[in-house]
Amino acid sequence: MLEQFSLKVWYHLISPKMSRKIKSRSATNADLLSGGVSCSERILRDCHQLYTDPDSGLITMAQSVGVTLLPPRKKITVMLMGNHSAGKSSFINWYVEEHIQRTGVAIETQGFSFVTSGRKRESLTGNATLHLYPHFKPLQDFKGVSEYLSTEICTSRQKRFSLVTFVDSPGLVDGDMKYPFDVDQVLLWLGELCDLILVFFDPMGQALCKRTLNIVESLNGKHGDRLRFYLSKADEAGGESDRQRVMMQIVQELCKRPGLNKCGFDMPTIYIPNPNKPSRCVNQIEEVCRTIEKTINQTVQNTLNSLEKDCELISEAITETLNKDRQTTIENRRARCKSCFLTLLGFTVPLTLMALVLLGTLSRELLEAALGHQGTETLSLYLTPVVRIFDSLSVAQQLYGCGGLVLLSFLLLIIARFSFSTRPNLSGKQKRQLQEKVEYVQEVVKTKKKTLYEEYLRQSVSDHDMDL
Questions:
Q1: Which stretch of 19-23, 53-57, 143-147 has the lowest confidence by average pLDDT?
Q2: Using an 8 Å Cβ cutoff, are 359 and 425 in contact?
């Protein structure tokens, strides 16, 4: 009875604080959802809409002229990798300020978990994850990966989480640990698509995991600009001297790898702040947030730059299509003229033979009655030499000659029919549509891109500088 009473008292004492905290979080998220969309988020969303609009999107326009474009993503992808129990899931929970990922000393993350913001809290399995992220569908080609994919959607909009999709990877260990899929190849493939790769080194004995170092070295060869190294759980490394010793060991091991031995190497110390467990260790976890922020800004700039390049690409493709069609029209006209000439020539031969037959069989009085005196004289003037030559030949030679002329006529007609065929070209309506697309890209899309760039720059540059 006393225990129940104590529990009730504790519940009533603590519940107001918890409820106030929950209400505060809900109010913050509601405010952000209602009108707190950041400038970068709006720019990425508008750029994505310019590409994917079903009626006037750039992707649809590009397909009409044989150009393939990919829509820009509305969020950056940040992959966290490192040895087992390096604090990857704990960092995600701290960043979103919600307990999304399971944490602990045991290997909690056995597959790849995507963490993103959305309208409501939801957990998705492998197939749903691939539907949500179609650009990750090639992961199906890796045997066993689909069963170990998941997505956690939460409503948090803390920090810049609305513009970030985290990829929490399995903890890497050496030895006889067997994964249900080729974790090394999957990590290397994901590194191709991710905008930022955070490598966490745990100071508690697993930092020099060879598997981690091998993957990091491979990623550094192609995407060294995306890699960032951090000494996680730095507050658990002991005193300052112990921490420095651990960092020196990690740096020495990294520098043994030719690809990782470079100038300007940096590895900030980070840990999850705990008010109940103060530490004198310098915590540079905000440096991670600034790195993510910088990557978002760079992505916004790259998206706007790509938008301009794609506009030029579409305009050039349409212009080239119109020029090719114009050239095709000229060639078709020439082909028709040649075909008409050969067809006329092919019909001239039998007509000439018919005229010879008529001239030889009909009387002069009948010809004059039909053609008139002047017409008969003209016909005689042109055909008399041919008649004389024809009469000078024997009957056999005349037959062979007529047969040859008829064969020549057929050959000329066949050549006219098949050798000078025309190619299909654009109709007037199609030309007008292409011209309208060029005008839309140049006047609407480029103007929109300029407006978005100005909005982005006004966040950091004064109006006076913008006017310059």
A1: 19-23
A2: no
Distance of CA 447 to the CA centre of its chain: 22
How many Cβ atoms are within 10 Å of 299's Cβ, its own excluded? 22
Indicate the pTM of the whole model.
0.69
Strand stretches in 207-339, DSSP E: 227-231
How do residues 207-254 score in pLDDT, each as one tens digit?
Answer: 566 777 888 888 887 877 888 888 887 777 667 777 777 777 777 777
Give the containing element (helix H, strand E) for 167: strand 164-168
Q: In what helix (H) or strand (E) does residue 76 lie, and over which residues does it extend? A: strand 76-82
The string of DSSP letters for 312-333 reads HHHHHHHHHHHHHHHHHHHHHH
Lowest mean pLDDT among 15-19, 137-141, 174-178, 399-403: 15-19
| 3-state SS assignment for residue 458 | coil
> How far is Cα 189 from Cα 202, in angstroms, rounded to an integer?
24
Asked whether the beta carbons of 253 and 213 are under 8 A apart, the reply is yes
User: DSSP secondary-structure letter at 83?
Assistant: B
